[in-house]
Amino acid sequence: MTATLERPPAAARPVPRRPARWAPPVVVIALLLVGWQLGVTLSGVAPQVLPSPLRVVEQGWANRAALWTNTLPTLQVTAVGFALSLAVGWVLATAVDFSPWLRRALLPLMIASQTLPIIAIAPLMILWFGFGLLPKVLVIALVTFFPIVVGLVEGFARTDREASNLLRSMGASRWTEFRYVRLPGALPSFFTALRIGITYAVTGAIFAEYVGAQAGLGIFMNQQKNSFRTDLVLAAVGVSAVITLALFALTFLVQRLVAPWIRR
Amino acid sequence: MKISVRDLQVSFGDLRVLDGVSFDVAPGEFVSILGPSGSGKSTLFQVLAGLLEPDAGRVEAASSAYMPQKDLLFPWRTVLDNTTLGLEVAGMPRRAARAKAGALFEPFGLSGFEHSRPDELSGGMRQRAALLRTVVQDRDVLLLDEPFGALDSLTRTAMQEWLDEMRARFGWTVLLITHDVREAVYLSDRVLVLSPRPARVVHERTIDLPHPREVTAAAAVEVELRGALR
After folding, report:
1. CB-based contact (8 Å) between B147 and chain A?
2. Are the beta carbons of B76 and A261 separated by less than 8 Å?
3. Residue of B49, B122, B162 with shortest CB distance to A3
4. What would the pLDDT profile of B95-124 be if each residue is shown by its tens digit?
5. pLDDT tens profile A128-171
6. How far apart are the first and last CA of chain B?
7. Is the minimum CB–CB distance between B92 and chain A shorter than 8 Å?
8. What is the pLDDT confidence band of residue A13, given thresholds at 50, 70 and 90?
9. Is B70 an interface residue toward A (CB < 8 Å)?
10. Where would I find the beta strands (DSSP E) of chain B?
11. Does the structure show a pLDDT above 50 at A3?
């Protein structure tokens, strides 16, 4: 061969090292906690009103058994509710992608579902479905399915027209085109939507439990607030924040397993 | 005839894009379609690739494989699995498809990149991978829509020389869209010139020169400079 073929580009720039990425949030959180601790100590405010962070940790640890018993139901409700939300989200988004008629029929309904004030709906759910798993699962699904559907629908729609043409020129059916191009192409925006959804899921679970439950972080917070145990309310808030962060981090792990080609 | 087009007409609403286009392509022939931007060249290809129904006219086209302007290599597939796409869509088992496409990696200058991701390839390599994906489908005609349009001028020239060799080696029947006159003259057996929209064939030129084509005195200096740049 006489024609000289050029070489591939050099390797991409390395990502910043870990400490550089983690340092800023750690510094900010540490500063806030120190400020809070100093503020509480110096002002002498009553712990029923505002406990110091040290007290929150100390009392949270002393009541770790109660916190743990109430964390498990919340985790369970979150997992089931979010799984339902994902299933519904994928089915709706796929249906809407295949049928313009369904898109026109369903999208306004879905948007309308997001205008429902959850604060009014959640107690009604308990009225209708009791104190079991179902009303909480429905509240979580209601608050999290929308970002998932929107992320998927827009991800599917973002498919390059020319990529569709290429597949059709190869003789692909609509379903084959969906499987080979539209579905994988939608994954980046799906994972973004997944991260938004999962942060709402834990809050949704706590909200549903707050209104009425046999156990769970939400009802625990409600009970502790009624006993003026602000420190334990905040300890439960801390636990829910840790759960949310862990689930958020988990989405990156799943993304690396499912779609390692997505560049960040 | 591999392709026979008679009095082809296509309009989008009130916009008349193709206005009675007629031409033939013989087996083993390399024909270029030259025309100003927006003259309906890509529309013509969409009709030939079966993506668009013409309003009027007759099209007899052997089975064709279509290579769009963008390389459209999918980041979720390795280079090898991108090149087997057409075979997989046609129902060939993955293992057989990989063996068939893999055999072309050497002549296409892609050896060793079978399991790379497309973003690890240079622009020229990406276009060769896209061409491999087109060629491996074993269709009768290759429809190439400005395949080198997005490349820098050095890479484009290298790719034109390479395509010229490959075509001589494999005996492909090619219909190439371009607005690069030199590219058309360098590669083609015959050039069809389209008018601005609404398009019709306004000029036809058979180029009966041996391959690889001789360069003029000025272009010889160009070749020397390109050689030095490598």
Report:
1. no
2. yes
3. B162
4. 999 999 999 999 999 999 999 999 999 999
5. 998 888 999 999 999 999 999 999 999 999 999 999 999 999 99
6. 41
7. no
8. low
9. yes
10. 3-12, 15-25, 30-34, 56-61, 64-67, 141-145, 174-178, 190-194, 201-206
11. no
Angle at A237 between CA A80 and CA A144, to 5 degrees: 35
Contacts of B127 in chain A (CB under 8 A): none
Collect all residues with Cβ–Cβ distance below 8 Å to B177 and sequence separation of at least 6: B32, B33, B35, B41, B42, B44, B45, B144, B145, B146
On whether any CB of chain A is under 8 Å from the CB of B49, the answer is yes
CB contact under 8 A, B162 and A184: no
Which of these CATH numbers, 3.40.50.300, 3.90.226.10, 3.40.50.2000, 3.30.470.20, describes B1-63+140-230? 3.40.50.300
pLDDT value, residue A167:
94
Q: What is the residue extent of each domain of chain B?
A: 1-63+140-230, 73-139
How far is A167 from chain B, CA to nearest CA, in Å? 8
Domains belonging to chain A, first-starting first, are 54-258 (1.10.3720.10)
Q: Do B50 and A6 touch (CB under 8 A)?
A: no
